[in-house]
Recover the amino acids of this structure.
């Protein structure tokens, strides 16, 4: 983190060509881990892995071996394979849900920040109501009523992200709408749609993208928490959260069953946070780095 | 300088590392202030006068490098252990900053900010400290001082805040008060009042004062000695009457010419000093003022003039072609 | 100040109404019918119809909403159809546990975060500062249920110093109560301190650049007085603002932590209600928690005004 801050300070003065190197080793390690996790999750069906659901009652909680690299769980399922298939669930929910928030929140925020007036008041007021619910509670209540499924979980986590994306987009639009290039476009008689899409969107997109990465981290955590409690993805599907929840039962005999998915989740969340935070600092209009 | 020396600044250099390279803010400055005397330090913004005052107070930014000696009351402030330095600050070495809008803490009452200084250095109980605070506020011309104690800085006008800042500075009867552009941020109508207040309290308390300003007019009637700074160096130094009678350094002359005159005809343009002060991260080989000086000759660009005495030892200036003599040099 | 409070109070009313609306309509997302859920396997068309009439489910949705809201305004939040306990009873019984947990957690979070922030700000750029800001950043990526597992493994399974689960009321056995509370509160505090530290540290670094801090030094004040009296208060405004957001996370965290450590608080009531599909309790708890959250944010707003005299006096 500290090295990151330093590199950002210097990045302001440095020419863009050098920025890549100045982002620091940690940044690139985080990118590496993210790429690796996503690649493994996509390729899971073609990788030479044992089935994550095949039980082998003779090999329960088996230690690391050549056959089971990371051992087996309480039902004799291959732990490595479960981790990778768990990553698919965690990443699908973690990446898809923020897309909903990004699209709806981003659009609302840009419109609110650009048109101002009553529309802005309604949007901001509506978001205040949504923010009046502690997010995890709202997610739990809605999945309880709608029923547990990956789709429902993704939808509700996505909607929960709308207010935050709205704020980011609105704040960025508010500052940009006063800049010369927007005023110049207005003076030239450009339509609202043109200004929003051609002038504002490319500039709002960067802070939104940075925030998207942070939102992925939060979503993975919330999905994990829900699944950990058994309120997220329905069994027999398992995400990292539900694996940690199952591993909790055998902390005394095989703590690795909880700690392996925990480590995978921690590293992934940390990577998204690290990359998102770096990009946010770079795109923060107050720092004027971009 | 008559009387015993209270403060002597000896060969002080302040370097600030910046992304663009080293910035020499104060460049080998020597100054002295006698007990009860007033020294005016004059120069444009960025000439290093504020950094000099911060160097004396040992309040430079963490990254700054400071060398030389700052002898105050027989002790070198640079060598003083932090705890001793702390006991000195506020007690015998006080300061008034430029902007009273930012130099008072917005979340503490006027009373707290006054009383804490009193109680830090003088062993006063709450009642005595409160009474002293009221007296101090009254002394600096604040009406209804009792009520002010419970008020916050934002409830006072700029002029009133600067009076509070002066009251805080005066609270422990310091031997030396450093007033760093005390009137720059104030309305013109208030400026003279604050300056007169400082001068009055300075005489009454027999305290020494360093009055830092960009305005030669301010130091004219209110100081014993004046030092003119340019690009981190003292370029002219003289007893105030001597300086105004016969200034030698072209920069001082230009500063004086830039002051508006009451007897000038309407719409007379002010003779601004052309050009800009040199980039302090790119020091010049010769005289720092030479690019803007109308008397500059080729020697001025090659060599740096030292600070040398003129007719009287008290009047020093750093110039190869001082005013009045330049005509001879041209022959 | 009074005007400020009145204005904020006025804003509270539409938000609370909207919260009640949203809570009510989330409940109507339920596929099928509440009556089927309640009757479960024994549902026959006749007794479903009877129950629907009994519960007023045959009426239009907005009539049901106003009926529900009317009952709530009279203090009737409904009654569990499983235990027969009223929502209000169930909540008041468990509220002290959740409050104790959250207050302990927030105190622990502040005790860890505030001094670290001050030290790091006073020595910003030092090795210690870099290490701590790095650790805080890493800790932000450790959700409560991960640190809970870690703490249980360390203190309950390996060292056997503290119990992993259980609870006694403070009034019965204060020491025992605290023994049960340490790990859950610490779990939440571990999630709280990084945010506290990061925000306070960066504000504090900005404050330490201010003229009034230079003047405080020039006045010869002690370093501790400068940091705690002159710098801490003006630096804590953002901290107070994010406390409002933090409460939301804290409530969410409390739900998880209460479930993991088997503490009989609101969170466990909620999770239990979901497991047993006790939808009346669920609806009531969600409404009460959201209302409580809104009110806590209101209090945070007031605290903001207390900290900054400029807001109190209507400036800025």
């Amino acid at each position: 983190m500290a090295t990151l801050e330093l590199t950002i300070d210097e990045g302001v003065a440095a020419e863009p060509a050098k920025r890549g190197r100045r982002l620091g080793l940690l940044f690139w390690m985080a990118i590496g881990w993210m790429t690796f996790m996503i690649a493994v999750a996509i390729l899971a069906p073609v990788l030479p892995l044992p089935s994550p659901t095949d039980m082998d009652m003779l090999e329960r909680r088996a230690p690391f071996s050549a056959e089971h690299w990371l051992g087996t769980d309480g039902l004799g399922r291959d732990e490595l394979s479960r981790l990778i298939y768990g990553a698919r669930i965690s990443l699908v929910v973690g990446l898809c849900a923020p897309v909903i928030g990004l699209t709806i929140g981003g659009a609302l925020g840009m419109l609110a920040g650009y048109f101002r007036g009553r529309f802005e008041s309604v949007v901001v007021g509506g978001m205040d109501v949504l923010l009046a619910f502690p997010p995890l509670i709202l997610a739990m209540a809605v999945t309880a009523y709608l029923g547990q499924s990956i789709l429902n979980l993704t939808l509700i986590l996505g909607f929960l992200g709308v207010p935050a994306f709205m704020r980011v987009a609105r704040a960025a639009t508010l500052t940009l709408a006063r800049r010369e290039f927007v005023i110049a476009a207005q003076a030239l008689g450009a339509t609202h749609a043109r200004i929003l899409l051609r002038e504002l969107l490319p500039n709002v997109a960067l802070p939104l993208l940075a925030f998207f990465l942070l939102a992925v981290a939060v979503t993975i955590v919330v999905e994990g928490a829900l699944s950990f409690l058994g309120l997220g993805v329905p069994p027999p599907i398992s995400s990292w959260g539900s694996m940690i929840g199952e591993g909790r039962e055998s902390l005394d005999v095989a703590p690795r069953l909880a700690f392996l998915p925990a480590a995978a989740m921690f590293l992934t969340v940390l990577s998204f946070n690290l990359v998102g935070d770096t990009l946010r600092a770079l795109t923060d209009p107050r720092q004027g780095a971009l | 300088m008559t009387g015993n020396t209270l403060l002597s600044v000896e060969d002080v250099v302040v370097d600030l590392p910046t992304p663009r390279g080293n910035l020499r803010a104060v460049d080998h400055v020597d100054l002295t202030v006698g007990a009860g005397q007033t020294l005016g330090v004059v120069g444009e913004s960025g000439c290093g006068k504020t950094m000099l005052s911060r160097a004396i107070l040992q309040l430079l930014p963490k990254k700054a490098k400071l060398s030389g000696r700052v002898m105050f009351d027989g002790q070198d402030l640079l060598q003083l252990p932090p705890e001793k330095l702390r006991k000195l600050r506020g007690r015998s070495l006080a300061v008034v900053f430029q902007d009273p809008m930012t130099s008072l803490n917005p979340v503490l009452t006027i009373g707290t900010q006054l009383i804490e200084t009193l109680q830090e250095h003088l062993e006063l109980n709450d009642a005595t400290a409160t009474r002293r605070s009221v007296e101090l506020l009254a002394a600096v011309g604040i009406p209804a001082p009792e009520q002010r104690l419970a008020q916050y800085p934002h409830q006072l006008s700029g002029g009133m805040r600067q009076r509070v800042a002066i009251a805080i500075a005066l609270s422990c009867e310091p031997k030396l008060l450093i007033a760093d552009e005390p009137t720059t941020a104030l309305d013109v109508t208030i400026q003279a009042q604050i300056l007169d207040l400082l001068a009055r309290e300075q005489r009454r308390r027999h305290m020494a004062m360093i009055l830092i300003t960009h305005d030669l007019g301010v130091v004219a009637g209110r100081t014993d000695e004046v030092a003119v700074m340019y690009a981190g160096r003292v370029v002219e130094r003289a007893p105030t009457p001597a300086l105004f009678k016969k200034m030698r350094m072209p920069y001082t002359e230009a500063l004086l010419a830039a002051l508006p005159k009451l007897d000038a005809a309407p719409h007379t343009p002010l003779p601004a000093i052309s050009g800009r002060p040199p980039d302090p991260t790119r020091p010049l080989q010769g005289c720092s003022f030479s690019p803007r000086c109308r008397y500059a000759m080729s020697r001025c660009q090659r060599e740096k003039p030292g600070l040398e005495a003129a007719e009287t030892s008290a009047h020093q200036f750093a110039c190869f072609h001082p005013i009045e003599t330049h005509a001879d040099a041209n022959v | 100040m009074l005007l400020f409070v009145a204005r904020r109070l006025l804003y509270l009313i539409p938000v609370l109404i909207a919260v009640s609306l949203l809570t009510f309509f989330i409940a109507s997302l339920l596929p099928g019918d509440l009556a089927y859920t309640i009757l479960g396997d024994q549902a026959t068309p006749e007794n479903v119809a009877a129950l629907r009439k009994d519960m007023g489910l045959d009426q239009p949705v907005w009539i049901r909403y106003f009926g529900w809201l009317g009952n709530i305004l009279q203090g009737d939040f409904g009654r569990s159809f499983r235990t027969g306990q009223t929502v209000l009873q169930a909540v008041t019984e468990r509220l002290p546990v959740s409050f104790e947990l959250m207050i302990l957690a927030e105190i622990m979070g502040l005790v860890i975060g505030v001094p670290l922030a001050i030290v790091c700000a006073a020595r910003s750029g030092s090795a210690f500062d870099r290490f701590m800001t790095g650790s805080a950043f890493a800790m932000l990526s450790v959700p409560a249920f991960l640190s809970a597992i870690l703490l249980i493994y360390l203190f309950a399974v390996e060292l056997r110093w503290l119990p992993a689960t259980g609870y006694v009321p403070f009034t019965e056995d204060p020491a025992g109560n605290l023994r049960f509370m340490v790990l859950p509160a610490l779990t939440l505090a571990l999630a709280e301190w990084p945010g506290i530290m990061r925000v306070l540290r960066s504000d504090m670094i900005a404050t330490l650049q201010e003229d009034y801090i230079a003047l405080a030094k020039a006045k010869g004040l002690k370093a501790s007085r400068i940091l705690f009296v002159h710098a801490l208060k003006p630096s804590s405004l953002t901290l107070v603002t994010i406390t409002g957001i933090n409460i939301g996370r804290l409530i969410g965290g409390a739900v998880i932590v209460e479930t993991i450590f088997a503490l009989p608080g609101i969170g466990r009531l909620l999770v239990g209600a979901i497991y047993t599909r006790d939808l009346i309790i669920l609806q009531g708890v969600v409404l009460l928690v959201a209302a409580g959250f809104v009110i806590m944010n209101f209090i945070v707003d007031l605290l903001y005004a207390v900290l900054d005299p400029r807001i109190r006096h209507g400036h800025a």
